[in-house]
Amino acid sequence: MEKKICSYETLFVVDATLAEEDQKALIEKFTSLIAENGTVGEVNEWGKRRLAYPINDMFEGCYVNVTFKSEPAFPAELKRIFGITDGILRANVIRLEEKKAPVAEKAAE
Protein backbone atom coordinates (compact mmCIF):
# COMPACT_ATOMS: atom_id res chain seq x y z
CA MET A 1 0.00 0.00 0.00
CA GLU A 2 1.33 3.41 -0.96
CA LYS A 3 1.97 5.92 1.82
CA LYS A 4 0.14 9.20 1.52
CA ILE A 5 2.37 12.28 1.84
CA CYS A 6 0.82 15.72 2.39
CA SER A 7 2.27 19.24 2.54
CA TYR A 8 2.11 21.14 5.82
CA GLU A 9 3.19 24.42 7.32
CA THR A 10 3.86 25.18 10.96
CA LEU A 11 4.34 28.49 12.70
CA PHE A 12 5.59 28.50 16.26
CA VAL A 13 6.50 31.26 18.68
CA VAL A 14 9.52 30.78 20.95
CA ASP A 15 9.81 32.62 24.27
CA ALA A 16 11.89 35.76 23.59
CA THR A 17 13.16 35.92 27.18
CA LEU A 18 15.20 32.74 26.67
CA ALA A 19 18.91 33.02 25.93
CA GLU A 20 19.74 33.06 22.21
CA GLU A 21 21.40 29.63 22.48
CA ASP A 22 18.25 28.18 24.06
CA GLN A 23 16.09 29.67 21.31
CA LYS A 24 18.35 28.17 18.63
CA ALA A 25 18.25 24.81 20.45
CA LEU A 26 14.43 24.80 20.43
CA ILE A 27 14.32 25.70 16.75
CA GLU A 28 16.86 22.97 15.96
CA LYS A 29 14.90 20.46 18.08
CA PHE A 30 11.73 20.97 16.08
CA THR A 31 13.34 21.18 12.64
CA SER A 32 15.21 17.93 13.32
CA LEU A 33 12.01 16.30 14.64
CA ILE A 34 10.24 17.29 11.43
CA ALA A 35 13.19 16.04 9.34
CA GLU A 36 13.08 12.66 11.11
CA ASN A 37 9.38 12.23 10.33
CA GLY A 38 9.17 13.88 6.93
CA THR A 39 10.92 16.25 4.54
CA VAL A 40 11.70 19.83 5.55
CA GLY A 41 11.01 22.35 2.80
CA GLU A 42 11.83 25.81 4.07
CA VAL A 43 12.75 27.20 7.50
CA ASN A 44 12.13 30.94 7.93
CA GLU A 45 13.16 32.54 11.19
CA TRP A 46 11.23 35.80 11.36
CA GLY A 47 13.00 36.90 14.51
CA LYS A 48 11.66 38.76 17.53
CA ARG A 49 8.30 40.45 17.04
CA ARG A 50 5.67 42.02 19.22
CA LEU A 51 2.73 39.71 19.97
CA ALA A 52 -0.78 40.82 19.07
CA TYR A 53 -1.78 40.19 22.69
CA PRO A 54 0.17 39.16 25.81
CA ILE A 55 0.77 35.43 26.25
CA ASN A 56 1.82 34.41 29.78
CA ASP A 57 2.58 38.09 30.55
CA MET A 58 5.01 38.27 27.61
CA PHE A 59 4.75 40.87 24.87
CA GLU A 60 7.37 39.56 22.41
CA GLY A 61 8.22 36.24 20.83
CA CYS A 62 10.53 34.80 18.18
CA TYR A 63 8.55 33.52 15.21
CA VAL A 64 9.62 30.50 13.13
CA ASN A 65 7.83 29.24 10.01
CA VAL A 66 8.57 25.75 8.61
CA THR A 67 7.10 24.07 5.53
CA PHE A 68 7.36 20.29 5.32
CA LYS A 69 5.91 17.10 3.85
CA SER A 70 4.96 14.11 5.96
CA GLU A 71 2.38 11.41 6.55
CA PRO A 72 -0.99 12.67 7.86
CA ALA A 73 -0.48 11.19 11.37
CA PHE A 74 2.63 13.24 12.18
CA PRO A 75 1.12 16.77 12.55
CA ALA A 76 -1.03 15.64 15.50
CA GLU A 77 2.08 14.34 17.27
CA LEU A 78 3.94 17.55 16.43
CA LYS A 79 1.13 19.64 17.97
CA ARG A 80 1.27 17.48 21.09
CA ILE A 81 5.01 17.98 21.46
CA PHE A 82 4.66 21.75 20.90
CA GLY A 83 2.08 21.80 23.70
CA ILE A 84 4.27 20.09 26.30
CA THR A 85 7.54 21.89 25.50
CA ASP A 86 8.62 24.72 27.77
CA GLY A 87 9.66 27.79 25.80
CA ILE A 88 7.00 27.45 23.08
CA LEU A 89 4.35 30.14 23.55
CA ARG A 90 2.07 29.21 20.64
CA ALA A 91 2.18 26.83 17.70
CA ASN A 92 -0.05 25.98 14.76
CA VAL A 93 0.18 23.31 12.07
CA ILE A 94 -1.90 23.54 8.90
CA ARG A 95 -2.23 21.35 5.84
CA LEU A 96 -1.45 23.11 2.57
CA GLU A 97 -3.74 22.68 -0.41
CA GLU A 98 -2.29 20.76 -3.31
CA LYS A 99 -2.35 22.82 -6.49
CA LYS A 100 -4.24 21.14 -9.28
CA ALA A 101 -3.67 21.73 -12.97
CA PRO A 102 -6.36 23.96 -14.49
CA VAL A 103 -8.95 22.12 -16.54
CA ALA A 104 -9.09 23.28 -20.16
CA GLU A 105 -12.57 24.41 -21.11
CA LYS A 106 -14.17 22.96 -24.21
CA ALA A 107 -14.22 25.38 -27.11
CA ALA A 108 -17.68 26.46 -28.22
CA GLU A 109 -18.59 24.86 -31.51
Give a short overview.
Helix content is 27%, strand content 45%.
Characterise the protein shown here.
The protein is 27% helix and 45% strand. Strand 2 (38-55) and strand 3 (58-70) form a beta hairpin. It has a single domain, classed as 2-Layer Sandwich (Alpha-Beta Plaits), CATH 3.30.70. Strands 2-3-1-4 form a 4-stranded antiparallel sheet, covered by helices on one side. The chain is globular and about 55 Å long. The protein has helices spanning 20-37, 74-84; strands at residues 6-15, 38-55, 58-70, 88-95. The protein starts with 5 loop residues before the first strand and ends in a 14-residue tail after the last strand. The chain is α+β, with helices and mostly antiparallel strands and 109 residues long.
Q: How much helix, percentage-wise, in residues?
A: 25-40%
SSE sequence, one letter per element: EHEEHE
Content of β-strand: 35-45%
End-to-end span in angstroms?
44 Å
CATH class: Alpha Beta
How much is the radius of gyration in Å? 18 Å
Individual helix count:
2
Sheet with most strands: 4 strands, antiparallel
Mean pLDDT: 90
Structural class assignment? alpha+beta
What is the fold named in CATH at topology level?
A: Alpha-Beta Plaits
CATH superfamily: Ribosomal protein S6/Translation elongation factor EF1B
Coarse morphology: globular
Name the strands of the widest sheet in spatial order: 2-3-1-4
- Unreliable stretches (pLDDT < 50, length at least 5) are none
Q: What would CATH call the architecture?
A: 2-Layer Sandwich
The count of strands amounts to 4
- Overall domain count: 1
